[in-house]
Amino acid sequence: MISPYAAYAFDSLFARLTHKSPIGLSRLKALCGVEEQDQHCPLFVTWNTITDDAEDKSLRGCIGNFGNLELESGIKEYALIAALEDTRFEPIVPEELPSLECDVTLLKHFEKADNPLDWELGKHGVRISFSSSHQQFSATFLPDVAVEQGWDKNETLDHLVRKAGSRGDWRNLDIILTRYQGIKTSITYGEYVTLRGQLGLK
């Protein structure tokens, strides 16, 4: 079943780039047969470029917020920020739409870990914070990142420290780690176009 949240994120970018009217989350929920759920939670939106056979994909943008966001406004805001303002990439342009996949990850069950290894690969996302040389650092990976990259816990922490902007060894840092779980839903451009067709839209 297609998620209305991923569809709404894709629709937000589609409407911005094509200057068409947005569909709206409530309409997509009705189409997908999804009842109202928790309307506030932290979330991340990820854009990937996929090949024709959908076996290979590469990151095109990913930004989110750990605040307790209202879902409709939060998904729209971060769908656009991840697509257009992720400084690691050029802004997405209309010609790229057919090659895109959009993921929305709703974050739940935040827990402070007893130590930096107190989490499960594939189950938990991890967020670290630490200080070094009188500077504060922080970074996060969503639950699927380590598994997709083939990292173990030690490698994940190494990459997190680098992502945070530090070159120290995580074992020598006073890391505070928060683990969390995510509900991830995805949609491709083709699936999004099919939804538009079901609503009589082109």
UniProtKB/TrEMBL annotation:
Domain of life: Eukaryota
InterPro entries assigned: AMMECR1, AMMECR1_dom_sf, AMMECR1_domain, AMMECR1_N
A family per Pfam: AMMECR1
Protein's UniProt name: AMMECR1 domain-containing protein
Stretches assigned to the AMMECR1 domain: 1-196
Source organism: Kuraishia capsulata CBS 1993
